[in-house]
């Protein structure tokens, strides 16, 4: 592809999106630029504090448990109270709890505050995703979600490299920087992002529609199939932040080594996510999801053979390609399956799959590394990736060929969404 073609593709990718989206995008970017804690939490506990891999896994699991609780609560809040209030409460609470985590020393206190951090930080995800679906036109949503995902990984690439060096200087500095950046996100939302909620449950019922409850979402078999497959693939992807740093630390690599290896993930997504999205957006989602699951599982499986930072980085390249394919494909499917007046709850349940994975994956990785060794963990990742691919195959076989179009027309509102 020529330079002119790349420039034209870039212009087409960023044009036509509303101003509110770009402020929300900016908030996402600022948040991820300061996301140090998730990157070096395992190293902080094992190398900085001298705890075992099992304890580090337990703390990470409690962080994930907080996310499980807030996934559903954040989705309900986004529908009932509004997207903007939910974002403000979640981001302010995250800033306070992350700062506190840097000062606590008692093992029980660390575990308790980690739970609060997970609960506060994850509460904003359903609101962000629902707000983007509200303010962006249906035909632009996949592109908008890809751009938001791109911002997440641009920030992650920078913060990953910085986190390793900051950790060698001061872990506390990393906690305080993340708290400050998260507070800056709340300020951006407060000043620039308007409310976008289409209407309350009472208004929907008054207008003759069916109000969406959590039970409604859980009874949606097709949607819950997507959630189940998402959980399997999320368990694998979580190992990049949990199993990989612990395994590298056990093998004698430094925090900076891990930071450089995992930064490949963010750099590759920043460089290739937009062209990859343009390449896959009109292709069969079933095949794409199967390929993404296999790349993820066997990409982590290859980590068993890594003995240098360069080889670790190569394995990151493999599973990152799976991530780039999976994210926009699966997100587009979820949005199409979500009714307009229940987007918060649907996004909350979808987020739950990643939150439960964040709970299960650390427990799995810590126990396996301590008892069997890292090689077993990477073999299990290959097996789980294969199971995810089979799940996607079964799920997509059950969907009609024209399901994306049918669902989109079923879930779109008849009128444009205005601000509250």
Protein described:
This protein is mostly helical and 420 residues long. The chain has a single domain, classed as Growth Hormone, Chain: A (Up-down Bundle). The chain has helices at 3-14, 19-33, 37-48, 53-80, 83-101, 107-122, 124-135, 141-169, 171-192, 201-206, 214-218, 221-237, 243-250, 255-280, 285-301, 309-336, 343-371, 374-398, 403-411. Helix 3 runs parallel beside helix 8 (141-169). The protein starts with a helix and ends in a 9-residue tail after the last helix. 55% of the residues are buried. Residues 204-209 and 400-420 have low confidence and may be disordered.
CATH architecture name: Up-down Bundle
| Envelope shape | globular
Say what the CATH topology is.
Growth Hormone, Chain: A
**Radius of gyration (Å):** 20 Å
> How many helical elements?
19
Give the helix/strand class.
Answer: mainly alpha
Query: What is the string of helix and strand elements?
Result: HHHHHHHHHHHHHHHHHHH
What is the count of structural domains?
1
């Amino acid at each position: 592809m020529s330079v002119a073609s790349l420039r034209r593709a870039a212009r087409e990718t960023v044009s036509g999106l509303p101003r509110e989206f770009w402020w929300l995008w900016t908030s996402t970017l600022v948040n991820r630029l300061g996301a140090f804690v998730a990157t070096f939490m395992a190293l902080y506990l094992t190398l900085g504090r001298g705890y075992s891999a099992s304890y580090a896994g337990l703390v990470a699991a409690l962080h994930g448990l907080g996310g499980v609780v807030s996934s559903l609560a954040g989705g309900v809040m986004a529908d009932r109270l509004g997207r903007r209030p939910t974002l403000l409460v979640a981001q302010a609470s995250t800033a306070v709890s992350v700062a506190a985590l840097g000062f606590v020393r008692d093992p029980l206190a660390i575990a308790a505050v980690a739970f609060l951090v997970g609960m506060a930080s994850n509460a904003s995800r359903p609101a962000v995703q629902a707000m983007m679906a509200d303010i962006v036109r249906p035909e632009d949503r996949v592109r908008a979600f890809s751009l938001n995902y791109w911002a997440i990984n641009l920030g992650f690439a920078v913060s990953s490299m910085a986190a390793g060096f900051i950790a060698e200087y001061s872990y506390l500095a990393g906690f305080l920087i993340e708290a400050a950046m998260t507070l800056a996100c709340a300020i951006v939302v407060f000043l620039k992002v308007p409310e976008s909620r289409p209407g309350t449950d009472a208004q929907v019922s008054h207008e003759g529609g069916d109000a969406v409850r959590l039970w409604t979402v859980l009874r949606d078999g097709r949607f819950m199939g997507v959630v189940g497959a998402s959980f399997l693939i999320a368990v694998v992807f979580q190992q990049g932040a949990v199993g990989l740093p612990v395994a590298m630390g056990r093998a004698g690599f430094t925090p900076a080594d891990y930071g450089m290896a995992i930064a490949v993930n963010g750099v590759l997504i920043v460089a290739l996510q937009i062209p990859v999205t343009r390449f896959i957006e009109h292709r069969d989602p079933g095949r794409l999801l199967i390929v993404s699951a296999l790349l993820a599982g066997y990409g982590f499986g290859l980590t068993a053979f890594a003995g240098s930072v360069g080889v670790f980085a190569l394995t990151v390249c493999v599973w990152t390609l799976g991530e780039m394919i999976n994210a926009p494909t699966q997100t587009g499917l979820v949005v199409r399956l979500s009714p307009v007046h229940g987007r918060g709850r649907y996004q909350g349940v979808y987020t739950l799959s990643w939150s439960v994975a964040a709970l299960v994956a650390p427990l799995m990785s810590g126990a396996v590394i301590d008892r069997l060794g890292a090689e077993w963990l990477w073999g299990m990742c290959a097996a789980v990736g294969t199971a995810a691919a089979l799940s996607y195959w079964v799920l997509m076989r059950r969907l009609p060929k024209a399901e994306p179009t049918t669902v989109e027309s079923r879930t779109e509102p008849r009128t444009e969404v205005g601000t509250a």
